[in-house]
Write a structure and sequence with these properties.
InterPro entries: Folylpolyglutamate_synth_CS (IPR018109), Mur-like_cat_sf (IPR036565), Mur_ligase_C (IPR004101), Mur_ligase_C_dom_sf (IPR036615), Mur_ligase_cen (IPR013221), MurD (IPR005762). By secondary structure, this protein is of the alpha/beta class. The protein has 15 helices and 22 strands. Helix 10 packs antiparallel against helix 11 and helix 14 crosses helix 15.
Length: about 475
Amino acid sequence: MIEVTTFEVQTVALFGLGGSGLATAKALQAGGANVVCFDDNETRVAEAAAAGLKTQDLKTLDWSGVSALVLAPGVPLTHPVPHWSVDLARNAGVEVIGDVELFCREHRKLCPEAPFIAITGTNGKSTTTALIAHLLRELGLDVQMGGNIGTPVLELEPPRPGRHYVVECSSYQIDLAPTLDPTVGLHMNLSPDHLDRHGTLENYAAIKERLVAGAKVAIVGVDDGLSSMIADRLELARKPVCRIAGERELTAGIYAHNGRLIEAHDGAQTEVALLMGIDSLRGDHNAQNAAAAFACLRALEIPADKIAAAMKNFPGLHHRMEIVARTGRTLFINDSKATNADAAARALASFDRIYWIAGGRAKAGGISSLDEYFPNIAKAFLIGEAAEEFAKTLDGHVPYAVSGTLTQAVRDAAAEAAEDGAEEIAILLSPACASFDQYANFELRGAAFVNAVRALPGGGNTQEVA
């Protein structure tokens, strides 16, 4: 745990007692703050009290003596309307911050020279975060990974010289971190997402930009126009910027081309790593992830050959283009994390012959934007609430069946794939939807896919690879 000492003997209000909120309350209390916690969920309040934390309805709190409101990232700060606790804090002139901001303050206080790498982007940030941490560990370095991926940032070990922090940051966390100042800030890409929480795409983009604007070195993916403009603005502000790409050639920066990473500098282009043969880094999207991770370690002055060697055994992440089994020529791929069309596009672009399992609770725009990948799809198997809507989009373009449930979709896809003579076949769960109609989260949906694959007739002959 990182004890938050920057609010020692001060009163701090905290709202939101989920995983990261509870961890933050404990870190503040351990650092000597007088923490007053609350949540709209009575069970969470009771659990916090049982853990020895002070709980009180913040509506009854005397805000004149409060130094800060620490808000859990899932609680609305601005849209669709500010949470009532935010209104109370602002009316009292109290700053509203989150756990990443507290981490930044402790990092500056305890050991600012400890490398701090922060990663954001609409898609790819989790894989890139995990890849960076993997590379650093492979090189024998002391690494702490957390934030929006797995471990809450304040549950990591305290800063000390030589300890590297690799922190995934969501837009919600950035919005609550006004002094975010990583050693290396990495922004991957932008596409419409979380607009219910940020109001407009422009607001969402501006929040993402804060992470790289506050960094000592900025690494920016330029495969999309909005992100390319972020890189241009940073350069105009004389910020050190490294552009990275997975889908286009660059004259300066690091980009992927035909399964290779190329470092371009002063007109010279040098191959620095080979991605072909690394299953966990298939596709243009993963090529961008690899370019980003490579650029990050180069910014830390790590030699290119050492980075390339460490990249070869990256295992990948669960639920992100995860090859969970093989049966002959057929790959079973769990990409349950693809909760929007843009994320699903990355998987659909990575295979030539796909039996696609899609559906769930649809997001704005559905799957109409995926039409360029329809030729890659041998057949679609539709599940959940979105099945009827997706069927209308696919009708006349892609053969489809409405399977209804994920288990049935796996059975249906496996049966048809068994008759396919293609050299390589992908049975791909890449839903392009939220999971909430049938599963509490994408992790449970991915686990259900794996279980359905293992339950297939003849599953004893299936070679499990994850």
